[in-house]
Write the structure tokens for this entry.
Amino acid sequence: MKRKKRRQEQAQAQHGPPPPKTGVYRPFQDLQQKLPPPAPAPPPRRRIVPPAAPPPEERERASFESAMAGVAPLERDHVPSRRSVPPPPPVEDELEAAERFLAAMVQGDVPFDFTGTDEYLEGKVQGLDARLVQKLRRGEYAVEGHIDLHGLDRHEARVALRDFLERAQADGRRCVLVVHGRGLGSPDGIPVLRERMKDWLSRGSIGRRVLAFASARPVDGGTGAVYVLLRR
């Protein structure tokens, strides 16, 4: 009994007097009073709203102003005048160009384009439709006259050719055949007339009457003759 009483006194000295007997046992009542008060609740966090983006017009203006920073405007005296720039040359009218080309053809001033080999002759005035030359080469034009220059020297042959083409054009003939030979019977074996034929048919008074020429088919003399397409 003494030991039990002593333990009660020690507990009372350590924890205080026992609670009054009210019929309800509350062992943690005194302990709750000794606890520190609860910490206050933190304030609510504010929501950060980002600033609204500027409209595209303001962004473009700000970008332009930033790029032009430090640029000084030109003085009025240094601004080039539009009147000082010479105007571009006028474009030639296609009709005027065609008329000048036809006038040059009439005067015989249009240069020729040449094709072929040492034996084969072919030429046409510049700008002539290539289909006409193809028809001439294939012998599709009816031969309306011919001249044979065998036995003539180059001076006689040129005069005879000039007179023949002048009469043929006056008669309204379109295609004629000129036989110049291959030069097999010449002393040196050189086809003198064939060598001269290209120059005669493309220049001077003879060239003014010619649109195109091409070596004939074998049935009409082959490389020893040439078809000549005359101007109307």
